[in-house]
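Customer ticket, subject: "Can you confirm the structure for Phosphomannomutase?"

Message body: Hello, I'm evaluating your service for our small team and ran a test protein. I'd like someone to confirm that this is what the system normally returns, since I don't have a reference to compare against.
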Amino acid sequence: MASRKSILYLFDVDGTLTKPRQVISEELKNFLLEKVKSKVAVGLVSGSDYVKIAEQMDGAEVAAKFDYVFCENGVVQYRGGKLISSESILGHLGEKLLQRVINFSLGYMSKIELPSKRGNFVEFRSSMINICPVGRSCSQAERDDFVKYDSVHSIRQQFVDALKSEFKDSGLTFALGGQISVDVFPTGWDKTYCLKHVADQNFEEIHFFGDKTMPGGNDYEIYNDSRTIGHKVISPEDTKEQIVKCLNV
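Agent reply: Thanks for trying us out. I re-ran your input and got the following:
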């Protein structure tokens, strides 16, 4: 086994370390920060912002114990709990295009009938727009209902296809985000963006663990990147099992 500094383990959050939008288990948290971190560098890479990631890691003081936290696909990066750098989708694309995307999305979603609809359909983040047909204000039960409905009717995939058709020459990428939403970001601002932040560390290996590794999923690009060793997982329990096999811990 190479020294700790020569290997980096990067983890998606939702579906990989936690159940979607839930808090990491005490067992997995301790396993990562005590056993795994003693052997390799550890980092998080998520489409969410730092506040949401910290909540899911059971607090900002826990998130700060990870060597790296790459928010919003790595366009916003933290090290040791401190903000190091960030980029702005508004500055990159401009107001006109952003409003076109938002207006089209709101119009499209207004025509969809779902088991329920709540509030916060469009969430503007530093590096992306997160669009949610059911509304991010939905309850856990309403989220679960949408997930089941989406698995049958492919609501989000049809939405992604419509966005790709409408904005095919815009320089934007549209991907399934988490369980209930669609992420919109400049092409190239997927999770591989975070890899540039660790290039100067000269890691011998970078392992990535994620669940949305299929084409159109927001883990697809980094999972398949030549700079990473990809591990497809199906749950936090599966993530732990795969780490145990990799590290013999």
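A couple of notes from the result: The CA atoms of residues 162 and 168 lie 10 Å apart. DSSP finds nine helices and eleven strands in the chain. Feel free to reply with more questions.
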